[in-house]
Amino acid sequence: MSRRTEYIEEIASEGALRLLARASNSRSLQASALTPRITKTVEKYLLRDDEHASADAISSFVDDLQADDLCLAIACENGDQSAWEDLVERFSVTVRSAARSVTANEDASEDLAQSIWAELHGLRAREDGKPASKLSYYSGRGSLAGWLRAVVAQLAVDQHRKQVRLIQPEEDAEMERLARDMHGRGQMTVFSVTIDPEQSVTHKIAGQEIETALANAIKELADEDRLLVKLYYFDELRLREAGAVLGVHEATASRRLTRIQNDLRSRVLRTLVDDHGWTKPEAERAFTEMAVHLETDLEPLLATQSVAKDRARSST
Asked: DSSP letters along 33-52, please?
């Protein structure tokens, strides 16, 4: 072992102690159980780009890891039954929701979800006799919920490949062609074929869930509120012009639009957290990053023809 490696492991060991101290549930783990995982993560993600990173940079990197999620994953990997039960209880909704996003029907999504739990528990045995769990790939850099959605997407792609090879062994599968095309254009989708799930952040799954949540939230708006959103965002009217259509002052239209925006955001975030198992910070970040890039055409959901016609008639 080189002096540099020993130096990194020493910093990782100190970081493991701090990580255990800030975890709300350390799962009775010792620093020695976390140090190898932390060292591997530092080497893979920090030193890959800066092999001469300082001790402060390494310590800061370690302190940004998800303490509770990492402890939970390692405890499960080590065969802690209580931790495994907590994992299933906390993330069953997340896994099912992600599976539904990438499968054609409920039966297929249930099969995929079950496959994920089998992979997480471990289908094979390690040299020490414990199950070889896929959780060993979780580094703690991002939330465990986000990592699980990436794992679901990756397994869906892998299963599709196996089916295609059985059915069309000499043909190039459409999904694989799409994966290469999208990768070549630098776009990230659910069909990305990266080996490490954390490198395959599933923007398509997240986007679909946000789109559905936003569409449902829009459906629940009052007719005049939907019309205001349509006039301002899709018809690109100024607030003064949109207010005139609604028969209200520009300032009133502005206040109403702000209220609608806050209401939509709250509804979407609540749906992502309650129905899809997202964490609140994760949902807020994803909504901010992706809401402006949604693929679904939401304009039909904003159709309020009867209101528009009534307002048009009243203005003539």
From this structure: HHHHHHHHHIIIIITTT-TT
